[in-house]
Design goal:
single chain; alpha+beta; H-NOX domain; Arc Repressor Mutant, subunit A; 5-stranded mixed β-sheet; disordered C terminus
Length: 327
């Protein structure tokens, strides 16, 4: 988020910057595509060099916030406390970005939200770290405005520019040459109730749900199914979670789905079956498929799969449904 706009503002061709790392311009049009973290670091470093602008990564964070996490961001904003919001982000962040380790560490009356990026150690991380930690600061401020003046950002690396250049981009207090890369704030702020999700976050969610609709309103059951698909790996694909994400209470959502001739349980089973079929075709182990779909016992998954398909998963895989091998 923000890469293309920031490149244009610096009179740089973003497509050329991506191509230098072997990345397609498709990533600019489809924000849900995943790219390697090493590649992201290379792109940021190269673009900062071409632009002769050492704060490129930091300025990218101006375009980012809770919306960057898509449905996960909206889910986090619905927690009872900021601590709960951070737990959700920390627990499920690997679905958004694998290769990042986050830890919330008590330190006296302070909390340190530490960040470690697991990329090739030969790659300079300064651009990536400044973008990521200031993004984290933006998220904290969205969750509760009190974080704005009481949070400092610690970086292990030295400053890349003069203090006034940093302060022109972010109001966060920045500390360089520290022991850890972390957000530091008073522990008591974790008990704050998160602010309601902003219109920007809600609008992003709506765009996420409508992305394949070519401008047409999608049926409610499509939106529910898309959220189920996104949230199944987190274990949060429940009526309790999804109804408020769509601006409804549970009874209203159930009633409207019934009016469309379906129900939440049916949509959940349909999505589980779709994910299970795809995983089995890709030769994932049946145990892994069951666990990823939220089944604690293989027997429960096997019974469910037989209900969906008419045969157990083992037989389904070895029948004509198995992928054909071709030279």
């Amino acid at each position: 988020m923000g890469f293309q706009a920031l490149c244009r503002s610096r009179h740089i061709n973003p497509v050329e910057m991506l191509a230098a790392e072997g990345l397609s311009s498709t990533v600019l049009r489809i924000p849900d595509l995943m790219i390697a973290y090493d590649s992201l670091a290379h792109v940021l470093n190269h673009t900062a060099d071409v632009a002769d602008y050492p704060l490129f990564g930091l300025e990218m964070s101006k375009y980012q916030g809770l919306k960057t996490f898509g449905p996960l961001g909206l889910l986090a904003s619905q927690s009872a406390t900021v601590a709960g919001s951070l737990e959700i982000i920390e627990k499920y962040f690997h679905f958004h970005a694998s290769g990042v380790i986050m830890n919330l560490v008590p330190h006296g009356k302070e909390m340190h939200f530490c960040l470690d990026i697991m990329i090739d150690p030969s790659i300079s991380q300064e651009q990536l770290l400044e973008m990521s930690l200031v993004l984290g600061y933006n998220v904290l401020c969205e969750l509760s405005p009190e974080f704005a003046s009481q949070t400092s950002i610690h970086f292990r690396h030295p400053a890349l520019a003069e203090p006034e250049e940093y302060s022109a981009i972010t109001r966060a207090k920045l500390c360089f040459g520290q022991e850890r890369d972390a957000l530091v704030f008073p522990a008591r702020l974790l008990e704050q109730k998160p602010s309601p999700a902003s219109d920007e976050v809600k609008n992003y969610l709506e765009a996420f749900l409508e992305r394949e609709s070519q401008g047409h309103e999608q049926p409610l059951q499509h939106k529910v199914s898309k959220l189920i698909y996104e949230l199944i790996p987190t274990g949060e694909a429940t009526l309790t979670t999804i109804a408020p994400m769509l601006g409804m209470n549970m009874r209203t959502l159930q009633r409207e789905l019934r009016q469309q001739g379906t129900e939440f349980r049916t949509l959940l089973d349909d999505v589980r079956f779709e994910i299970a079929r795809t995983a089995l075709e890709q030769n994932h182990s049946i145990t892994d498929v069951a666990l990823n779909l939220g089944y604690s016992e293989l027997s429960a998954f096997s019974r469910a799969f037989k209900r969906w398909s008419g045969v157990p998963p083992q037989r389904w895989r070895h029948n004509d449904h198995a992928p054909r091998m071709m030279h």
